[in-house]
Q: What sequence folds into this?
């Protein structure tokens, strides 16, 4: 772990650099001076509004959402011993989507409103509870059943969503479509606060699980033999990762790819030991989504390209190059 | 005594036949015990019960007088190490990282690894002859090197009790021999309590101080290899006629010679 200090410096520099760029660019471009001026008094009031009320919460939101998804994915991959695991595998996103679409169909919420995130959070929590109840057999949490239960529950919720949408008017359909695409637009300071209050302590807790996640990745028998209380750790890991996913989905919708790819990319560059992997994923995931969101705002001109599209367009080539150059060690 | 098993009965599922029936055994420090027996005799079940990861139906497996299941895992892991044959590697790990996991029970969740931990990892790697391999990825290792890496992790745990589950499975002639010889040597030098589950009768007879022969969940015989390795005992336990030769200090050689029930033992198959 000689280079662990260096990796955090690199990622922090990347994070601050992209935050600066993310604050400057957009429909109204701002110079560095205007951005700095926005923090002082007496500066341009419009620049101040753009920076403080619009761009900064969005920058913080992107970092926290990306960080949460990457940490959640890393924890799920170790817990399920499955490199294909990602934050939405166990049904959190489909539960949240069902609740959100249901709320839209009943006219209870609208895009950008307050009710929709609450409904989505409840839906996500419900999915977590169902999957956990199914996979808990005589006081043991069976991780294979967990995956199966998650996939089945997702499929069922997906069917429910389809059923609702078939009987919905075009306007609901459109809103539902945009919700499921995921977006960070209109991110408020209140959402940042809610997200930070969960994402930061939960990620710190996941960091504390690091050695146990290393152990679990070797199988439960070995994990127990090197001192891990296997059942307790599996539960904590499941709830931490699931709730990280649920909270991000409720405030930002479904943003794929980050939770799957960032942990793999970090492993390829800096290795698989989770005590380093978790904090690195937090920073790398945050920086990655911030870059992607900034690109999404800028590339399409007046039309904002859905963030999920940009995640895939930027993430897939990056990941393929990494896969080819770092040798297929994952 | 380190491990003690009293009237242990273990059943998988509620209706099934017991995997262990009323087994009682004692394991002493400085003694290398090999646990032998046919597939399904209960060898691995015994190991899991000793490790406290299996709830017995009746009876008890105790470590230092306290039921294994009641030990906090971290405390037990500082005393008992396992070399398992059923490990998965979901993600690319380096040899050094695998061996460093042996320090987990000493470090807990938060304490960073210090110089002394790194020294112990380096020493453990040297002891198994893998000091050149520390930065190699596990998937580049041969089966023999991987097995040695697992043994190094157990050594880094600095436990006084060593449980080995099929340590020579998939190993070639020389690696089998070296592994067994090293296990016996470590047991003697560090006065470990060592329990090896194996199908390798001949090496077990040569490198064990004591042998436990399990059959159908029961202890069929226990004692020195000389006492247990007889044609009658092995033949009955494995359900197969066995010829046993005494090779002096090379141990005893057990060779299957005829299928079950064939009294024409010793002949070539027709």
A:
């Amino acid at each position: 772990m000689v280079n662990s200090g260096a990796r955090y410096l690199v990622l922090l520099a990347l994070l601050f650099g992209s935050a600066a760029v993310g604050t400057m660019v957009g429909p109204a471009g701002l110079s560095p001076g205007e951005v700095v001026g926005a923090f002082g008094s007496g500066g341009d009031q419009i620049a101040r509004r753009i920076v403080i009320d619009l761009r900064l919460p969005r920058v913080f939101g992107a970092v926290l959402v990306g960080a949460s998804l990457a940490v959640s994915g890393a924890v799920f991959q170790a817990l399920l011993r499955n490199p294909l695991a990602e934050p939405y595998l166990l049904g959190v996103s489909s539960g949240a989507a069902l609740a959100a679409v249901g709320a839209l169909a009943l006219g209870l919420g609208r895009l950008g409103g307050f009710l929709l995130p609450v409904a989505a959070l409840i839906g996500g929590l419900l999915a977590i509870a169902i999957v956990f109840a199914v996979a808990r057999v005589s006081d043991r949490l069976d991780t294979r059943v967990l995956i199966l239960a998650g996939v089945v529950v997702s499929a069922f919720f997906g069917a429910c969503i389809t059923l609702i949408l078939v009987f919905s008017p075009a306007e609901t359909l459109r809103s539902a479509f945009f919700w499921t695409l995921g977006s960070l637009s209109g991110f408020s300071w209140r959402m940042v606060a809610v997200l930070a209050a969960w994402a930061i302590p939960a990620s710190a807790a996941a960091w504390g699980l690091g050695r146990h996640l290393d152990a679990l990745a070797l199988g439960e028998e070995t994990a127990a033999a090197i001192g891990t209380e296997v059942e307790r750790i599996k539960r904590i890991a499941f709830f931490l990762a699931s709730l990280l996913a649920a909270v991000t989905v409720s405030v930002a919708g479904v943003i794929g790819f980050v939770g799957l790819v960032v942990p793999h990319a970090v492993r390829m560059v800096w290795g698989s030991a989770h005590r380093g992997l978790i904090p690195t994923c937090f920073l790398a995931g945050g920086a990655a989504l911030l870059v992607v969101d900034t690109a999404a705002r800028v590339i399409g001109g007046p039309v904002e390209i859905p963030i999920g599209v940009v995640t895939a367009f930027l993430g897939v080539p990056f990941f393929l190059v990494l896969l080819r150059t770092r040798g297929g060690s994952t | 005594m380190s491990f003690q098993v009293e009237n242990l009965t273990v059943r998988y599922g509620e209706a099934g036949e017991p995997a262990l029936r009323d087994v009682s055994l004692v394991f002493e420090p400085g003694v290398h015990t090999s646990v032998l027996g046919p597939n399904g005799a209960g060898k691995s079940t015994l190991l899991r019960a000793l490790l406290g990861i299996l709830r017995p139906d009746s009876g008890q497996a105790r470590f230092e007088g306290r039921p294994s299941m009641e030990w906090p895992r971290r405390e037990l892991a500082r005393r008992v190490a396992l070399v398992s044959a059923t490990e998965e590697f979901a993600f690319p790990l380096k040899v050094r990282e695998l061996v460093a996991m042996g320090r987990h029970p000493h470090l807990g969740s938060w304490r960073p690894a210090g110089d002394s931990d790194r020294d112990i990892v380096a020493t453990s790697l040297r002891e198994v002859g893998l000091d050149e391999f520390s930065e190699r990825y596990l998937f580049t290792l041969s089966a023999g090197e991987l097995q040695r890496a697992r043994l190094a992790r157990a050594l880094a745990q600095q436990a006084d009790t060593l449980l080995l589950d099929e340590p020579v499975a998939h190993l070639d002639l020389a690696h089998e021999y070296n592994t067994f010889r090293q296990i016996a040597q470590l047991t003697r030098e560090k006065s470990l309590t060592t329990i090896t589950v194996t199908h390798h009768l001949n090496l077990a007879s040569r490198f064990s101080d004591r042998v436990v022969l399990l059959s159908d969940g029961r202890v069929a015989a226990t004692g020195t290899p000389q006492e247990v390795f007889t044609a009658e005992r092995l033949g009955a336990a494995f359900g197969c006629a066995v010829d046993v030769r005494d090779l002096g200090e090379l141990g005893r050689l057990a060779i299957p010679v005829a299928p079950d029930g064939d009294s024409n033992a010793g002949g070539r198959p027709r």
About this structure: The interface with chain B takes residues 1, 77-78, 81-83, 208-212, 214-215, 217-222, 224-230, 267, 271-273, 329-330 of chain A (CB under 8 Å). The first strand of chain A starts at residue 136 and ends at 137. Chain A has a mean pLDDT of 89.
